[in-house]
């Protein structure tokens, strides 16, 4: 039996707000009906629909809030909430959620030092093309007006009777509970990912390199109306895809592999590009450690530095500055096809597979796994060596 299991007073709920006051009010009301004294920390940057006035009108000693009439990133929003919180544990939640019965109890019972626990979401059938340990698609309504509260509550009660025990998971998400002091030591969510997306995947990578136990808790259930204030809202409808891709680019720049890469290995991979153009380089640069080009470095930085907080001067160099690297690929941009650019984004997994096969003496008799030849990509692996475990777990906040 675990000792020193936290109590309800040891958990703060951290929620970011951006308009959609009706959802915030419903979220708050549902929490208070179940948990009258649990600390709720609400942070709003840039709300214009009366959210700030509503916060000022709350007469609740167990609520902390902060707001400003400026827009800030999701990372900054939740980092501020964690800063304001006073409990031992903090849980990230959204304001378009309704927490099921026993939500906090299940989370804190599963928590232990060195662990990150993830709660489970039920969502209406709006986005059904993904499958995760933390997600169940079931329709209890897609807005407040048609939400079937009693049916959802009955579902939660039945799930708590039949639900699996907490288990180790690889399906990580934003929807977590963790020790506040640990999160503060790590700098919280990394503000490289602005305005949003991939900050959660980055955080989990930073927990992983510290050997955190990542635990899914089937008995901690919330209903999620699905991003009423986020990626699929009207506000971000047109810009969402662009923002998402820029976030993925920054994840690559930081970790050197795709957020959902199979092997998650960070290699010293560089590209040497002939006949380079400024826009063509942008289809390569984020996905390698460094890039050496025969076109203007200044033109590239002038155009694309605004897409990232990461200093591109540490990544883009003239071709005559080429130095030793573990893995080098050679590209002629004039010959490259769309599939070649896609393969560059898979280089980490390709090299990882080659490393596994290269370790088999029999396989090495028939193929040189240090050679890279894919479409119009040619290269050489000088050394199989990855660096992800040597990366810092501390956020880069600006």
TrEMBL record:
Residues covered by the Glycosyltransferase 2-like domain: 12-148
Family matches, as InterPro entries: Glyco_trans_2-like, Nucleotide-diphossugar_trans
Superkingdom: Bacteria
Pfam family, one: Glycos_transf_2
Protein name, as recorded: Glycosyltransferase 2-like domain-containing protein
């Amino acid at each position: 039996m675990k000792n020193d299991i936290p109590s309800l007073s040891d958990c703060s709920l951290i929620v970011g707000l951006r308009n959609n006051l009706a959802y915030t009010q419903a979220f708050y009301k549902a929490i208070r009906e179940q948990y009258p004294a649990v600390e709720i920390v609400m942070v709003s940057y840039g709300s214009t629909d009366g959210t700030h006035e509503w916060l000022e009108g709350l007469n609740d000693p167990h609520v902390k809030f902060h707001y400003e009439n400026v827009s800030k990133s999701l990372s900054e929003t939740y980092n501020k909430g964690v800063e304001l919180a006073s409990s031992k544990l903090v849980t990230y939640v959204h304001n378009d959620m309704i927490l099921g019965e026993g939500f906090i109890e299940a989370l804190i019972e599963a928590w232990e030092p060195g662990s990150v626990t993830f709660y489970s979401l039920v969502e209406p059938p709006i986005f059904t093309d993904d499958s995760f340990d933390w997600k169940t698609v079931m329709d209890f309504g897609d807005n407040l007006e048609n939400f079937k509260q009693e049916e959802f509550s009955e579902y939660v009660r039945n799930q708590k009777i039949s639900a699996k025990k907490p288990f180790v998971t690889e399906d990580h998400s934003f929807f977590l509970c963790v020790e506040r002091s640990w999160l503060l030591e790590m700098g919280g969510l990394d503000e490289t990912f602005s305005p949003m997306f991939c900050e959660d995947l980055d955080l989990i990578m930073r927990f992983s390199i510290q050997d955190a136990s990542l635990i899914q808790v089937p008995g901690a259930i919330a209903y999620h109306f699905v991003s009423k204030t986020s990626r699929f809202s009207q506000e971000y409808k047109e810009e969402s895809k662009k923002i998402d891709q820029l976030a993925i680019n920054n994840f690559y720049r930081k970790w050197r592999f795709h957020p959902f890469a199979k092997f998650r290995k960070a290699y010293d991979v560089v590209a040497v590009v002939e006949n380079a153009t400024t826009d063509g380089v942008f289809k390569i640069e984020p996905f390698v450690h460094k890039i050496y080009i025969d076109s203007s470095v200044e033109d590239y930085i002038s155009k694309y530095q605004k897409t990232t907080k990461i200093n591109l001067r540490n990544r883009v160099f003239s071709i005559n500055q080429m130095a030793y690297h573990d893995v080098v690929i050679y590209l002629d941009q004039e010959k490259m096809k769309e599939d070649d650019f896609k393969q560059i984004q898979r280089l980490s997994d390709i090299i990882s597979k080659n490393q596994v096969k290269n370790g088999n003496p029999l396989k090495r008799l028939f193929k040189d796994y240090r050679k890279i030849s894919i479409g119009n990509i040619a290269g050489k692996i000088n050394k199989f060596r990855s660096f992800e475990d040597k990366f810092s777990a501390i956020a880069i906040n600006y």
